[in-house]
Please model this.
Amino acid sequence: MIVTVKNTYYMMAVNLLYTISVISSIALRFNDIPVGKLHLVSNEIVYIIPLIYLVLVLKYLKEDTSIITTCKIFIGVDVFISLYFVVVKVTAKNISLYYLLFLLSIIVVIIFIIQSARIQNKWLAYPMFTYGLAFLFITLLQLVASIIYSSMMFKYVSLTKVFIPGITFYILFKVVKYLAMDKGVNERVI
Model:
Protein backbone atom coordinates (compact mmCIF):
# COMPACT_ATOMS: atom_id res chain seq x y z
CA MET A 1 0.00 0.00 0.00
CA ILE A 2 1.21 3.47 -0.81
CA VAL A 3 1.43 6.00 2.00
CA THR A 4 -0.43 9.03 0.63
CA VAL A 5 -2.79 11.69 1.89
CA LYS A 6 -5.69 9.94 0.12
CA ASN A 7 -4.94 6.57 1.74
CA THR A 8 -4.58 8.24 5.11
CA TYR A 9 -8.07 9.70 4.68
CA TYR A 10 -9.30 6.17 3.91
CA MET A 11 -7.74 5.03 7.19
CA MET A 12 -9.59 7.87 8.94
CA ALA A 13 -12.83 6.52 7.48
CA VAL A 14 -12.01 3.04 8.79
CA ASN A 15 -11.17 4.58 12.16
CA LEU A 16 -14.56 6.31 12.11
CA LEU A 17 -16.15 2.86 11.69
CA TYR A 18 -14.13 1.70 14.68
CA THR A 19 -15.32 4.69 16.70
CA ILE A 20 -18.94 3.90 15.85
CA SER A 21 -18.36 0.25 16.75
CA VAL A 22 -16.83 1.19 20.12
CA ILE A 23 -19.70 3.54 20.92
CA SER A 24 -22.26 0.89 19.99
CA SER A 25 -20.46 -1.65 22.22
CA ILE A 26 -20.55 0.82 25.10
CA ALA A 27 -24.26 1.49 24.52
CA LEU A 28 -24.98 -2.24 24.55
CA ARG A 29 -23.04 -2.74 27.80
CA PHE A 30 -24.82 0.14 29.52
CA ASN A 31 -28.18 -1.33 28.53
CA ASP A 32 -27.13 -4.74 29.91
CA ILE A 33 -27.25 -6.32 26.45
CA PRO A 34 -24.39 -8.72 25.74
CA VAL A 35 -22.12 -7.67 22.89
CA GLY A 36 -22.18 -10.37 20.20
CA LYS A 37 -19.09 -12.26 19.12
CA LEU A 38 -19.47 -11.10 15.51
CA HIS A 39 -19.63 -7.51 16.71
CA LEU A 40 -16.46 -8.00 18.78
CA VAL A 41 -14.59 -9.61 15.87
CA SER A 42 -15.61 -6.87 13.43
CA ASN A 43 -14.63 -4.33 16.07
CA GLU A 44 -11.16 -5.87 16.20
CA ILE A 45 -10.83 -5.90 12.40
CA VAL A 46 -11.62 -2.20 11.99
CA TYR A 47 -9.31 -1.51 14.95
CA ILE A 48 -6.20 -3.10 13.45
CA ILE A 49 -6.46 -1.78 9.87
CA PRO A 50 -5.35 1.79 10.78
CA LEU A 51 -2.65 0.37 13.06
CA ILE A 52 -1.25 -1.72 10.21
CA TYR A 53 -1.26 1.44 8.09
CA LEU A 54 0.71 3.22 10.83
CA VAL A 55 3.31 0.44 10.64
CA LEU A 56 3.54 1.20 6.90
CA VAL A 57 3.98 4.88 7.76
CA LEU A 58 6.86 3.96 10.07
CA LYS A 59 8.44 1.98 7.20
CA TYR A 60 7.84 4.93 4.87
CA LEU A 61 9.66 7.23 7.30
CA LYS A 62 12.53 4.71 7.50
CA GLU A 63 12.27 4.25 11.25
CA ASP A 64 14.44 1.72 13.05
CA THR A 65 13.53 -1.93 12.43
CA SER A 66 13.18 -2.61 16.16
CA ILE A 67 10.48 0.08 16.42
CA ILE A 68 8.56 -1.39 13.49
CA THR A 69 8.91 -4.91 14.89
CA THR A 70 7.66 -3.76 18.30
CA CYS A 71 4.59 -2.19 16.69
CA LYS A 72 3.89 -5.43 14.82
CA ILE A 73 4.25 -7.47 18.02
CA PHE A 74 2.00 -5.00 19.87
CA ILE A 75 -0.71 -5.40 17.21
CA GLY A 76 -0.32 -9.19 17.13
CA VAL A 77 -0.50 -9.65 20.90
CA ASP A 78 -3.46 -7.29 21.22
CA VAL A 79 -5.38 -9.08 18.45
CA PHE A 80 -4.56 -12.51 19.91
CA ILE A 81 -5.68 -11.54 23.42
CA SER A 82 -8.84 -9.81 22.19
CA LEU A 83 -9.87 -12.72 19.97
CA TYR A 84 -8.96 -15.21 22.70
CA PHE A 85 -11.42 -13.54 25.05
CA VAL A 86 -14.07 -13.59 22.31
CA VAL A 87 -13.67 -17.35 21.88
CA VAL A 88 -12.96 -18.47 25.46
CA LYS A 89 -15.24 -17.56 28.33
CA VAL A 90 -13.41 -16.62 31.53
CA THR A 91 -14.13 -19.21 34.21
CA ALA A 92 -12.63 -20.16 37.57
CA LYS A 93 -10.56 -22.84 35.81
CA ASN A 94 -8.80 -20.47 33.43
CA ILE A 95 -8.64 -17.31 35.57
CA SER A 96 -4.85 -17.67 35.98
CA LEU A 97 -4.43 -17.65 32.18
CA TYR A 98 -6.67 -14.56 32.09
CA TYR A 99 -4.34 -12.68 34.45
CA LEU A 100 -1.26 -14.02 32.67
CA LEU A 101 -2.57 -12.55 29.40
CA PHE A 102 -3.18 -9.24 31.19
CA LEU A 103 0.43 -9.31 32.36
CA LEU A 104 1.66 -10.10 28.84
CA SER A 105 -0.41 -7.22 27.48
CA ILE A 106 1.01 -4.80 30.06
CA ILE A 107 4.60 -5.85 29.29
CA VAL A 108 4.10 -5.48 25.53
CA VAL A 109 2.46 -2.06 25.97
CA ILE A 110 5.34 -0.83 28.15
CA ILE A 111 7.83 -1.96 25.50
CA PHE A 112 5.67 -0.23 22.86
CA ILE A 113 5.76 3.00 24.90
CA ILE A 114 9.54 2.84 25.23
CA GLN A 115 9.97 2.17 21.51
CA SER A 116 7.54 4.92 20.50
CA ALA A 117 9.68 7.38 22.46
CA ARG A 118 12.58 6.36 20.19
CA ILE A 119 10.80 7.35 16.96
CA GLN A 120 13.01 9.85 15.11
CA ASN A 121 10.16 11.92 13.68
CA LYS A 122 8.98 13.74 16.79
CA TRP A 123 5.71 14.81 15.17
CA LEU A 124 4.81 11.10 15.16
CA ALA A 125 6.63 10.06 18.34
CA TYR A 126 4.48 12.13 20.70
CA PRO A 127 1.09 10.82 19.42
CA MET A 128 2.34 7.21 19.37
CA PHE A 129 3.68 7.63 22.92
CA THR A 130 0.31 9.06 23.98
CA TYR A 131 -1.44 6.13 22.30
CA GLY A 132 0.70 3.68 24.28
CA LEU A 133 0.03 5.48 27.57
CA ALA A 134 -3.73 5.54 26.92
CA PHE A 135 -3.68 1.85 26.04
CA LEU A 136 -1.73 1.06 29.23
CA PHE A 137 -4.17 3.14 31.29
CA ILE A 138 -7.17 1.28 29.82
CA THR A 139 -5.50 -2.11 30.32
CA LEU A 140 -4.74 -1.32 33.96
CA LEU A 141 -8.31 -0.13 34.53
CA GLN A 142 -9.61 -3.37 33.02
CA LEU A 143 -7.29 -5.33 35.30
CA VAL A 144 -8.53 -3.47 38.38
CA ALA A 145 -12.16 -3.96 37.30
CA SER A 146 -11.56 -7.69 36.88
CA ILE A 147 -9.91 -7.98 40.30
CA ILE A 148 -12.74 -6.08 41.99
CA TYR A 149 -15.18 -7.96 39.76
CA SER A 150 -17.73 -5.21 39.51
CA SER A 151 -20.01 -5.27 36.47
CA MET A 152 -20.78 -1.57 36.96
CA MET A 153 -17.06 -0.78 36.94
CA PHE A 154 -16.66 -2.76 33.69
CA LYS A 155 -19.29 -0.50 32.13
CA TYR A 156 -17.46 2.65 33.15
CA VAL A 157 -14.07 1.26 32.12
CA SER A 158 -15.54 0.59 28.67
CA LEU A 159 -16.13 4.35 28.35
CA THR A 160 -12.37 4.90 28.33
CA LYS A 161 -12.06 2.83 25.14
CA VAL A 162 -13.24 5.90 23.21
CA PHE A 163 -9.78 7.38 23.80
CA ILE A 164 -8.15 4.83 21.47
CA PRO A 165 -9.93 5.86 18.23
CA GLY A 166 -9.57 9.51 19.27
CA ILE A 167 -5.80 9.22 19.58
CA THR A 168 -5.68 7.21 16.35
CA PHE A 169 -7.44 10.13 14.61
CA TYR A 170 -4.82 12.45 16.10
CA ILE A 171 -1.99 10.30 14.72
CA LEU A 172 -3.63 10.08 11.27
CA PHE A 173 -4.15 13.86 11.16
CA LYS A 174 -0.45 14.30 11.95
CA VAL A 175 0.39 11.92 9.07
CA VAL A 176 -1.83 13.91 6.68
CA LYS A 177 -0.21 17.16 7.78
CA TYR A 178 3.28 15.71 7.23
CA LEU A 179 2.41 14.26 3.83
CA ALA A 180 0.73 17.48 2.68
CA MET A 181 3.87 19.43 3.58
CA ASP A 182 6.11 16.95 1.79
CA LYS A 183 4.24 16.67 -1.53
CA GLY A 184 7.20 15.41 -3.53
CA VAL A 185 7.54 12.28 -1.41
CA ASN A 186 3.84 11.33 -1.50
CA GLU A 187 4.08 9.01 -4.45
CA ARG A 188 6.81 6.74 -3.06
CA VAL A 189 5.92 3.10 -2.81
CA ILE A 190 6.85 1.19 0.30
Summary: Residues 5-185 form one domain.
